[in-house]
Amino acid sequence: MDILAIILRLFHIFGAVIWIGISFFIFLSLDPLVKKLGPEGKRLQGIVLGQSNLNQIFPVAGGTTILSGILLYIKDSAIFAGNGLAYLGTGQGIVFGIGGLAGIGVMIMGARVVRPLVDQAQKIGAEIQAAGGKPTPEQAQAMASIDERMERINRIDFVLMVVAVLCMATARYF
Questions:
Q1: pTM score, two decimals?
Q2: CA nearest to 124, candidates 146, 97, 107, 94
Q3: pLDDT of 83-112, one tens digit each?
Q4: 79: domain range?
Q5: How far is CA 174 from CA 4, 91, 95, 102, in A?
């Protein structure tokens, strides 16, 4: 019994379930509802994402998934046991690698693109609320631009997460 592999795999699976579950909830449920509700939807989105603990859980779950996945990949490849890079060229190694890169891509986009956009939107939202709740034309334009970018990024992230899930679920069979 390989206790280290079991522990890493449990961290990887539970982290991924939480990370991807939140992502799918946002993409498939919250975002369409926000669009449907208009201005009230933005308020709801601000409450769900800004006042809940999702913004703390989300990066921790993603980081746990990525770190445990990298460690599992290194362990499975036996790179430090003298196996060299042979595993990386196997079907299993390639498919796990593609899934891992998809997940890492999502994490990088989240940290480098999404987080700054969310911070920017929250700042503008706070300014709007402080001024009585009606945005200036510049604020409305800035929020619309942020929303448009976020929608594009969310679609890309969703596809990458589906790729990661499909790869992780099937890699052992290659």
A1: 0.83
A2: 146
A3: 667 878 889 999 999 999 999 999 999 889
A4: 3-173
A5: 24, 5, 8, 18
